[in-house]
Amino acid sequence: MIRNYRDLTRLEMEEIDKRETIVLIPLGALEQHGNQAPLGTDDIIAEAMVNYLKEELEAVCPDFPMLIFPVIPVGLSTEHKNFCGSVTFRPETYYHILYDICSSLSHHGFKKVAFLICHGGNAPMVQILSREVRSDLGLYAFYLSSGAFSHPDVKATISPGNIWDFHGGEMETSMVMAVDPSLVKLSTAQPGIPSAFTDTRSLKPYGSASISWMSEDWKTPDGKPIGIGGDPSGATAEKGDIILRTSVKELVPGLLDIRDFPIE
Ligand SMILES: [Zn+2]
């Protein structure tokens, strides 16, 4: 059975099988997403994702043993801090917050935690942390990437010619619109391209030689820092619904594997 962690009473929590139950912890961020999408885009997507996921998992496995932890609303957003409204933890703060949550869950007997990474900038810390908590606490910390952005059905939602779509672009904006179209101000949207990387042969934001990009590397065609990838102007709620549904379908096999993973 899938329930929200925070909805259980203490007595109900005492009844939970801590060895088999997975605690799913969605990791969001509070950071700029261009002119058009809200600062809480990743948090809004994280909440939508777990709602879609609950429905999808229950269809596959009605008694799936999982508790959904509240979305962690702030993450690692250093790359966006120079744009108004972005809030970030320092890496050491974030590590300790996640570690302390794991430590508390382990203290109560939980053995399996799954981080749902809804902001790519959080991923490196989760990878480091997952090894530490397994070693220190005997807690199995798995991690899942939330968006199936390379899935053909998701790629098919992107407007022709929108080649750089990622952070704050058409896909993320569409997912927010699927939740609440009034949160998106498409009339203010401007496209962004990684201008600092366009004249280099291998050094791309995701090239064979890499440098950590900052949001201001992404500029409008007339050279103004815009901090997003791609052109969000073609975003729609229908596209967002397709992306959310496709992404949660891709998460199901991983969660079934986590359920079946043998623990000591
Ligand atoms: Zn985002």
Give structural notes.
The protein has 264 residues and is α/β, with parallel strands linked by helices. It has 2 domains: 2-150 and 244-260, Rossmann fold (3-Layer(aba) Sandwich), CATH 3.40.50.10310; 152-240, no CATH class. Helix content is 36%, strand content 11%. It is built from 7 helices and 7 strands, in the order E-H-E-H-E-H-E-H-E-H-H-E-E-H. It has helices spanning 10-15, 41-60, 91-107, 123-137, 152-155, 170-179, 237-260, and strands at 2-4, 22-27, 66-68, 112-117, 140-145, 193-194, 218-219. A 5-stranded parallel β-sheet has the order 1-3-2-4-5, with helices on both faces. Helix 4 (123-137) links the parallel strand 4 and strand 5. Helix 2 crosses helix 6, helix 2 (41-60) packs across helix 7 (237-260) and helix 3 (91-107) runs parallel beside helix 4 (123-137). The longest helix has 24 residues, at 237-260. The chain is globular. The structure holds zinc ion. Zinc ion binds next to helix 2.
Strand content: 5-15%
CATH superfamily of the largest domain: Creatininase
Judged by helices, strands and strand pairing, the structural class is: alpha/beta
Could you say which overall geometry the principal axes of the C-alpha atoms support? Answer: globular
Distance between the termini: 23 Å
Overall average pLDDT: 95
Q: Which blocks of ≥5 consecutive residues have pLDDT under 50?
A: none
Q: Into how many domains do the coordinates divide? A: 2
